[in-house]
Structure formats: structure tokens, C-alpha cells
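Pasting as-is:
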Amino acid sequence: MATASDGVGRLRARGAVLVLGAVLTSVLIAPVGGLSLYWMPLFVGVSYLAASAVGGRTGGLWVPGLMVSFWGLADVLVLSGTLHVDFASAAITGVGLGALAAVLVLPRVQVPVTVLSVAVNTLLIGLLELAEAQVAGVLVDGWAWGLLLLAGAVWESRPSVTMPARERVGA
């Protein structure tokens, strides 16, 4: 039988994986590292998926992990010159494929998915793309995205946010 301390342990492990993703994003992506900024969504998406895997079926980052990973893969394929298609079309297709994978695959393995989680993640990805296109110079360094991922790690590690009250008792 799972106890509250098991749940808190999973949260801490999930947070630790996100911290690792934040560090890797900060040090491997320009200007600190040698990778171009277009690798950032793939790093963030894979960090979310790894954190979810540590958290188990209730790891709350499965949907954004899939959506951001597919978006990131599309970015890398187009911006590296591997795939010669329109960038915006590829990015939207990547987000759509991630959403489709989330909706079709996750429920089959008993991972809960809601329409709201897909919609909110789609909106957030769109707003990030819009901000990047409209406000040049904002969040153009890997370390800035690493800081955002670190903030997410802190948020995700808080039992009061991510666990029902009955599971926090005695934690």
C-alpha cells in the first residue's frame, strides 16, 4: 500500500529530474553551451517526460511532456536543415502530434488526460511562440529557459500543490 511519504518521495524525485533538466538546458544551450536555442523545447519536453516517468502514472507532466517534445523535435528537424518545410507548419504539426499521442496513448496505459490539459498546453506553446516572434531578445538564452524549468521544478515538488490533502497528511 502506498503511503503519503511514498507520494512525497516521488514528488521530490520528479523535482530532482526537473532540476537536472534545468541544469542541462542552462549549460548545453547557447550562449553557455554549443547547442542552438532551437534545441530548448526538446530539452524541456524530455525533462518533463523523464520527471513524469519518475512520478509514475500520476506524474502530472505527461501531456506537456509529449506536446513539448514533439514540438521540439519538429523545431530541431526544421531549423537544423534536416527537414525542408515551413517552420511554423512543422511546429504546429509537432504540437498536434504530441497532443494526439497524449490523447491516444496515455489513457491506454492508465495515465489520466483531460481536454483542458491539452488545450492549456496548446495555448501556452502558442503564447511562447507569439512572444518569441513579437518581442525579440526575450528568453533567447538557454540559461533563461533553464531558470524557468527550475522554477517549474520547485512548483512541481510542492506537495500542497500536486497532492490531494489526504495524501499529504504526515508528509
